[in-house]
Structure prediction request, 351 residues.
Amino acid sequence: MSQPSNDQKVAESPPIEDADGLRAALAAWFAQVGRDYPWRATEDGYEILVSEVMLQQTQVATVLGRGYYHRWLEQFPDVKALAAADEEEVLRAWEGLGYYSRARNLQKAARVILEEYGGEFPRSLDQIEALPGVGRYTAGAVASFAFNAPVAAVDSNIARVLARLFDFRECIDTTAGQRQLLQWAARLVPKAGGRIWNSALMELGQNVCKAKSTVCDRCPAAAWCQASEPLALPVKKTRAAVTVVDEHVLLACRRGKILLQQEVGRRRKGLWKLPSRGVEKMPGLSPVDKHNYTITRYRVTMFIYEVEDVIAEENERWFRLEELSNLPMPSPYRRVVARYVDRRGKATQSR
Ligand code: SF4
Prediction:
């Protein structure tokens, strides 16, 4: 199969007859089966932006099932509350969702909305896309879901559905492929508004036209679908292989306190973790425990070295165990620390 170049010509109109029929069929189907997500029951731009940013790299089951969305809106009910919060508070509320730059950007966006728009959520696609951390997809989703703007929002579900509907056999994760799908999606959005249309396409991708299975005989778009081999689509570039890495950290505890190190790297800046300071090279120390976790394309084995007393280095601080619940800490370290606190509690009880 030929690889598209970035300047490949994009067909503006999708190869479809009776697009109105497809729109009507999807709208009718969605009215019957569309799920009642809380972000579908609001037209508040901020609440929808929060849901979209949370869902960027996290499943609905986590965002809703583990209460992240509701807790966030209780703690930061509007842009004013989020703009005024301490960064540490914001990161703590985000803990467990990962990709912490999303939380930082949400707060920056809240501040922009407050300062540049007097707290009123901007309505145009360009204004929304100019907010920190907001890309073309998120802007389209917020504009269509909150304001019913007739704009496209092509997420991975919609990209898959469109690729199958139009039997699109080029890579969908090249610039040219993305541009083609966006162009078709933009032409398909009903002029009256994109809220129902985009929601229905997403729902179709989530429940009917899924990545590894399709239910074509119950698909409301089947009469328009051109895919001859749905599961062979969409075509994507080969993904980067998983890299296995080891991490060595110090679990240093003394008199009810634990030593933590503040992250300075871009991804987790400001969060607290177990110190890693070349501990594996320290003579006489060997790991007492290990913990496996995955982050992006890395499969990490964390080796834990327990020591009683060390001197805090730069970016490190001793914290009382009671203080930990208010500190933002990436989940893998939180789990290891929780295990230690649990063990310590049991040891104290058995004395
Ligand atoms: S008919 Fe099948 S392949 Fe086509 S959109 Fe529906 S579920 Fe997907």
Remarks:
- The beta strands are 243-254, 257-262, 272-273, 289-295, 298-307, 316-320.
- Confidence is low (pLDDT under 50) at residues 1-7.
- Residues 161, 164-165, 208-209, 214, 216, 219, 221-222, 225, 227, 230 surround iron/sulfur cluster (CB under 6 Å).
